[in-house]
Amino acid sequence: MAELPYEMKRLRHTLITIAESDPRPLTYTAKAFHKTRYDAVAQIIRESVGTKIDVLVDVGCGYGVTREWLEKFGIQIGSYIGCDIDPAKLEQSLKAEKVLCDARNLPFRKCAAEASLMSEVLEHIKRPYLAFVELLRVSKNYCFVTFPEEKLKNMLGFRYPEHISDISQTVLNSLARKNNYILVSFKKLYFLFPPSVLDRLRIPFSQITADILLNLFKIVSKTPLRNLSLIKNELVAYSRVKKD
Questions:
Q1: Could you give the count of Cα atoms lying within 13 Å of 204 in the half-sphere of its Cβ?
Q2: Can you give the residue range of the structural domain that contains 64?
Q3: Nearest to 194 by CA among 24, 6, 27, 65
Q4: Has residue 120 been placed in a domain?
């Protein structure tokens, strides 16, 4: 394979980053990308479940920021169980009952939680659909999943190295039906380019600039230009079918 020219190498360096999914720092990646996604996750959960959840299992919880965000949206959680395969992240996880485990083999009985969540996890693991079926198994009523849709970016050669699996919503929907779940909500977020570009170019963070970016993304999402977005995030909510 021919070596990439210097300009392309520099572009790859700018677009390809390995970073924590944290919406709190004052960076464009955090505020224009991660915060937008966390807000959407909290909103779709509130719209589906309401403001009270007895037990929520968050698989791949990382530092447990999701609970903090749900509380900001007025969602009260009786028991928040954070699961992760990284003990260092679990140790720092916020306000959670912590369980060290693999997403593909969750140590819970069937229907142990009222709701389950797996946000930006499936693309990081091999055989991701095993993890999704486990998520369905442990949830009694609701299951929430988010994942990136990066076909265009990957086709251009800018795949994030930590994203080792491509996720198909069609496959998720099929597995959900087989496990007595139906699709109840779907949202898609569009990002014309990775906001991390501004961070990598070392452009000082400004909330005004971040707001301009967000408004740009919102405008793009309502036009055919959304198909040119390098990064798209899909948020899906499933509900277990009630038996008569």
A1: 1
A2: 47-191+229-244
A3: 27
A4: yes
